[in-house]
Amino acid sequence: MSLVVMKFGGSSVGDTERMKRVAKRIVAKKEEGHKVVVVVSAMGDTTDDLIDLAKSITDRPAAREMDMLLTTGEQVSVALLAMAIQELGTPAISYTGWQAGMITDEAHGRAKINDIKPKRIMESLEQGKIVIVAGFQGISDDGEITTLGRGGSDTTAVAIAAAIQADLCEIYTDVDGVYSTDPRIVKHARKLDAISYDEMLELANLGAAILHPRAVEYAKQYNVKLVVRSSFTNAEGTLVKEEAAMEQGIVVRGIAYDKNVARISIQGVKDEPGILAAVFTALAEAGIDVDIIVQSGISNGTADFSFTVHLEDAERAKSVIEGIRDRVEFEKVTSETDLVKVSIVGAGMVSNPGVAAKMFDVISKQGVNIKMVSTSEIKISCVIDVTHLTEVILALHSAFDLDTNQTAFVGGPKERR
Amino acid sequence: MSLVVMKFGGSSVGDTERMKRVAKRIVAKKEEGHKVVVVVSAMGDTTDDLIDLAKSITDRPAAREMDMLLTTGEQVSVALLAMAIQELGTPAISYTGWQAGMITDEAHGRAKINDIKPKRIMESLEQGKIVIVAGFQGISDDGEITTLGRGGSDTTAVAIAAAIQADLCEIYTDVDGVYSTDPRIVKHARKLDAISYDEMLELANLGAAILHPRAVEYAKQYNVKLVVRSSFTNAEGTLVKEEAAMEQGIVVRGIAYDKNVARISIQGVKDEPGILAAVFTALAEAGIDVDIIVQSGISNGTADFSFTVHLEDAERAKSVIEGIRDRVEFEKVTSETDLVKVSIVGAGMVSNPGVAAKMFDVISKQGVNIKMVSTSEIKISCVIDVTHLTEVILALHSAFDLDTNQTAFVGGPKERR
């Protein structure tokens, strides 16, 4: 008998019919002889509906009250799912985040888990019950209701799996696993059997939507064995686990892309110490995340440099730069959109020199200009014009043997909580 | 500066526009110099919608899970109301039942308040905040979420008022006070300035819907000064207070009626000891409340008797009686509907003999047959055919000087929680 955590996202429990299907799946798992803890998100569009309700009252709701409001969504889900399981004749009990012992800090809307006290979960498991925990929520030491922010329910599931030393944490979602690349672009993209935490983390950070990076980090930190699988089919899904356990010899496991990229260029910056620090401090204070940074040639004592931000932050980033003209001398600031960041990811890359060169070569042979580059130990990203996305991904997929090998991409509609 | 508890029912916060109006009213109260605690119900039809959701999953939801489900309704209300008040520039904070320290027993769906620990309420008041508490809900010693059942939010408001020694507990509802009788029947029915706890309790128990009997009992027990007033107008409302403080000399304060009455008659019951006990024990075990009981003449060693039950329980009551034929010998059991119970209520009645006789006389003079009678120290009820309701109430209203005096009736659409 093993101890399994099953996490179902909002679309998996979008209405009561789907909830009944999920209940059957959960009961079947228990009848296989496992102890089962379920983590569930708010039903379908509930969270968005609640946000709309708040917006009809105020444009600037207090984060504390938003947490009070939004956590009701998961509470409704756990109660209904408990009823659906009980209706099948199987004992079940629902818990809110605070009842389940999810202790967080006080950062409303983006709280971090400080501790888990799974006493009630364990007691209910001992009583033979299926335990259903509201995802995304916790309680601070002061008794305030908090939410974990984006990816919260994934994180809840992984954190509970770690706390109760579960044998497996299954993330049920609306895609049936991790693919070598987006199947909408490459029809012969392949579903992976397995992927390492680090690879999954890079893919998640690159905007792939199945698993939130925080949840993957947590899983890696506590060595929680994860499976990503569909809540609508019985397909096997993709196992996320330690690198050491992975098959060897695969350089590139998957290709991801992110269209939400804008390039900001600052031209004619006076080349003085502290200039870069001034620029990026100002952006950080405005809450704008900067990704790739490239400094180009210096001439006549001035430099040009450029960086990428999220598409939505492009105009604001320009305003921030314009706003520090008193501290930073520069000629002009411009922004460029209609870009895409294409990334190849693979743990094998670190020991294979020439992977970057090969990527650049493949892209160049398509007649496509690479505008920016960034690399990490297991990832290389190139920013190109979005018009070339399909041809570049097809070429890379083939060049790195992904048409035949086991490879990785996470795509499909987002299910964040 | 006084300390005031304001309670708003579901229809008062039926949508976000109404909620904004309620927020203004609350802020105005604070700006008059009072400390304010607000108790609020779930918005409009929220509770019914949640019940429908549960019913779409199971016909027999566990009471614990229903509490988990339904308490989200009030949680949404308190969060939104806090936002609406904050939007007006006034500090506010929302609390769930458990955060507000509403400690109850474990009886899910009909929990009783065991204790209130208003530490957080008092702290927030000291910080100059308007405190908003979710009505209808609490927490058991084991950390289980409970609901107080019918009249729950009224009870929450009164219980908090008692615990924090508030100067006043205002119940805002969709009628503007307590009337001498139903204004839909008697156009010149008058709004009362004041009514005693006991009178209010009788009226509430007679099906009048503004205040739940439990809340009135609680108010009486802890001597909480209550005001019933409209959330839509600035009319003064009706004060509910101690009898000693009431004006003297008024015999009948109000007239109430209840159409949800059925009469069950058992004929030809063998007149043996223990028969009545057997019948009413069986009904109690089936959860059927019995109101008026009348035993009629005994002949040939058999007796007839009849009693009233809630209209909805009539068929079930008959089945229960049929089901004890092995223990109780009787000829037949019948039920009668299309009845109404008309009651006159007044604390002055107890010291005025002849009030009952006068009531019977007034009804008889209308040519109406009285089918059953019951009396208490401050109430006399007669069951008659519902077809005569209007003429009987008009005649009583006039005969007991209610057309001119201060009198009492609570009517209008129900707002239970």
From TrEMBL, chains A, B:
Lineage of origin: Bacteria, Bacillati, Bacillota, Bacilli, Bacillales
Protein name per Swiss-Prot or TrEMBL: Aspartokinase
Listed transmembrane segments: none
Gene that encodes the chain: lysC
GO MF annotations in UniProt: aspartate kinase activity; ATP binding
Its biological purpose: Catalyzes the phosphorylation of the beta-carboxyl group of aspartic acid with ATP to yield 4-phospho-L-aspartate, which is involved in the branched biosynthetic pathway leading to the biosynthesis of amino acids threonine, isoleucine and methionine.
Gene3D superfamilies linked: Acetylglutamate kinase-like, VC0802-like
Record GO cellular component, one term: cytosol
Organism: Insulibacter thermoxylanivorax
Residues holding substrate: 47, 74
Subunit structure: Tetramer consisting of 2 isoforms Alpha (catalytic and regulation) and of a homodimer of 2 isoforms Beta (regulation).
